[in-house]
Design goal:
single chain, mainly alpha, 7 helices, two-stranded parallel ribbon
């Protein structure tokens, strides 16, 4: 049914040399199983997906040595303003905000190349910081 209603998904989420039906199998499997992730999300959220206990209200309690990297899609419904707010709230900490161009909420699928590049840079930064210890 999903394949008929959303034929674009097979094109949008098809990785070169992979099975074009894999996305439909994935959607089937996540909907056929017991909805544990959805129940957790509902439990932690108020109506419309707002967090009951937003991390933004508690972020300053984290050890300032803990580095934080945010990734947002440039066209995502999730505002990057929270990432910049964390930068303001943690001036003595490493807080990196990355905006993935031409991407919505699913940055890993919408702009794979830029997403992978940003992740590689984050990993290099972590490795460099580990080497300095």
């Amino acid at each position: 049914m999903i394949r008929r209603l959303r034929p674009d998904l097979g094109i949008r989420y098809n990785i070169i040399d992979s099975d074009p039906n894999a996305i439909y199998e994935y959607i089937y499997q996540i909907n056929a199983q017991k909805p544990t992730g959805e129940i957790a999300f509902k439990t932690m959220s108020l109506k419309y997906g707002w967090a009951k206990r937003p991390m933004l209200n508690r972020i300053t309690q984290m050890d300032p040595k803990v580095p934080i990297s945010f990734l947002f899609g440039s066209r995502s419904w999730v505002s990057s303003s929270s990432g910049y707010k964390v930068q303001e709230e943690r001036p003595q900490s490493y807080v990196d905000v990355n905006i993935i161009s031409n991407a919505g909420h699913h940055v890993y699928a919408d702009n794979q190349e830029e997403f992978n590049s940003v992740i590689r840079n984050i990993c290099k930064t972590v490795e460099i910081n580990q080497d300095l210890k």
